[in-house]
Write a sequence for this structure.
């Protein structure tokens, strides 16, 4: 069995817990309000803006024997750079104030406690534990996006009558991003050291929970809003 398959097997329970959260299920059905969608995008911005710095930090912490992985990180950086601007543009396209989100520190548009914790854990994994463990975060964010982003984007766009330009983040990280998963799988299967494999598994389990906490926060902020359509 390849390490990638071991990774999926070892994190199946945590992945199921995330994918069955009410907000993710409702989002896949298009059953969320405009305020909820904007709240999701706001928190997305506050972690997506760290993607490139995290990748750079990870690459910088790798020893020479991981030059192959550092090269792959360079490819990731090229593809991920600037995606936080896509999120801000989506916020603007659905009536939000993207500059308020960009410059927020303590307002409703700021990163919530849960988002800050997930980002902090990623930096800590890289700088204190094992930089390879950062790929546990990659599994969670890219795997989740590929599984539901396109479907959710299409359903929400229809339900809220929003333009396609309000979904550049979801659509770019959805089914069209499947090549990233294949690339990721090939990288994970090149990890041979048990300590690296365990670091990725451990981190992935933690990131599934941390990412889930962000969705729980967004849902809690939206409890006063009623869904636009009934759940299927």
């Amino acid at each position: 069995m390849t390490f990638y398959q071991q990774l999926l097997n070892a994190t199946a329970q945590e992945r199921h817990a995330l994918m069955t959260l009410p907000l993710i299920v409702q989002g896949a059905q298009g059953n969320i309000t405009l305020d909820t969608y904007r709240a999701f995008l706001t928190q997305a911005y506050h972690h997506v803006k760290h993607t490139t710095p995290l990748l750079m930090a990870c690459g910088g912490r790798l020893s020479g024997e991981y030059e192959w992985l550092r090269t792959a990180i360079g490819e990731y950086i090229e593809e991920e750079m600037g995606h936080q601007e896509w999120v801000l543009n989506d916020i603007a396209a659905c009536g939000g104030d993207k500059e308020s989100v960009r410059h927020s520190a303590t307002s409703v548009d700021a990163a919530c406690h849960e988002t800050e914790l997930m980002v902090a854990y990623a930096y800590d994994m890289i700088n204190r534990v094992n930089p390879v463990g950062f790929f546990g975060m990659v599994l969670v964010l890219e795997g989740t996006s590929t599984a539901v982003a396109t479907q959710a984007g299409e359903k929400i766009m229809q339900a809220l009558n929003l333009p396609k330009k309000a979904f550049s983040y979801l659509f770019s990280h959805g089914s069209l991003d499947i090549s990233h998963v294949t690339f990721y799988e090939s990288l994970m299967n090149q990890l041979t050291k048990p300590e690296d494999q365990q670091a990725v598994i451990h981190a992935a389990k933690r990131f599934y929970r941390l990412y889930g906490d962000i969705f729980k926060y967004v849902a809690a902020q939206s409890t006063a809003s009623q869904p636009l359509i009934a759940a299927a």
